[in-house]
């Protein structure tokens, strides 16, 4: 990673962690943040299950097992967010919009090439590693800012802390999965590539906001996660 990418990474991850924390702490934006998280977590479950079946069919029992437990974790995360969202019944929140970030992050990859039975393993592992690694930090930050004073926030705080631990584990097995299949040089190159793609996606979003450009989320979002 060159120094510019490194600095941009610091800024982007700082901003997104700050935003996540802000959205979960404010009672007005919390239901929306929960709804978005619930859809993203539950929506990824069938994808990981299908990938697990593929890994098993290809004879990689280690990866099949990791992906199956990843699917189970994401299902549990979805339930934690759904449960927290239920506490906000009667309050106003909107059905979240599809997230433009994934469209930009996965630019140049067709919907067909991102399906669990077609995706290149290195594309899956590299792109997902970056997402899981950052999710672990963002969710830990969300947990940190929640107060323990009321029961609802305290419960959510506990749930988020356990989710953050799972995300750390997900990032770790994805890293190991890359190391099992590729040389360390290749692993470093792939991680660098996805980090750069992520930063470019954030920068494009920032420029769009400044310039008032409205971009449509594309269907390739639907491959990695059925919803986002
Ligand atoms: Fe998760
Ligand atoms: Fe995860």
Explain what the structure shows.
The chain is mostly helical. The chain has one domain: Ferritin, core subunit, four-helix bundle (Ferritin, Up-down Bundle). Helix content is 75%, strand content 0%. It has 8 helices and no strands. It is globular and about 50 Å long. 35% of the residues are buried. The mean pLDDT is 89. One fe (ii) ion binds next to helix 5 and helix 6. The site of one fe (ii) ion (FE2) has 5 residues, from helix 5 and helix 6.
- Strand element count: 0
Largest sheet: none
Spatial shape? globular
Extract low-pLDDT stretches.
none
Radius of gyration, taken over Cα atoms and rounded to an integer in Å? 18 Å
Number of helices: 8
Strand portion: under 5%
The number of domains is: 1
Relevant CATH superfamily? Ferritin, core subunit, four-helix bundle
The third-level CATH topology is: Ferritin
Overall pLDDT score: 89
Helix-and-strand structural type: mainly alpha
Salient structural properties:
binds fe (ii) ion, single chain, 8 helices, Ferritin, 0% strand, mainly alpha, 228 residues
């Amino acid at each position: 990673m060159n120094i510019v990418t490194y600095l941009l990474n610091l800024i982007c991850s700082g901003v997104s962690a700050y935003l996540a924390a802000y959205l979960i702490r404010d009672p007005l934006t919390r239901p929306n943040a929960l709804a978005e998280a619930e859809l993203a977590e539950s929506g990824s479950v069938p994808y990981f299950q299908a990938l697990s079946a593929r890994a098993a069919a290809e004879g990689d029992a280690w990866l099949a097992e990791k992906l199956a437990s990843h699917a189970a974790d994401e299902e549990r995360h979805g339930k934690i967010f759904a449960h927290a969202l239920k506490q906000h019944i009667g309050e106003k929140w909107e059905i979240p919009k599809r997230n433009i970030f994934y469209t930009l992050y996965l630019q140049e990859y067709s919907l067909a090439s991102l399906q669990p039975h077609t995706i290149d393993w290195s594309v899956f592992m590299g792109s997902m590693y970056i997402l899981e690694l950052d999710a672990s930090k963002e969710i830990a930050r969300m947990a940190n800012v929640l107060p323990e004073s009321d029961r609802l926030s305290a419960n959510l705080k506990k749930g988020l802390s356990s989710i953050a631990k799972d995300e750390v584990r997900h990032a770790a097995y994805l890293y190991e999965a890359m190391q099992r299949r590729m040389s360390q040089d290749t692993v470093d190159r792939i991680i660098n590539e996805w980090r750069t793609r992520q930063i470019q996606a954030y920068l494009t979003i920032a420029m769009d906001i400044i310039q008032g450009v409205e971009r449509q989320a594309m269907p390739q979002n639907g491959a990695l996660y059925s919803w986002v």
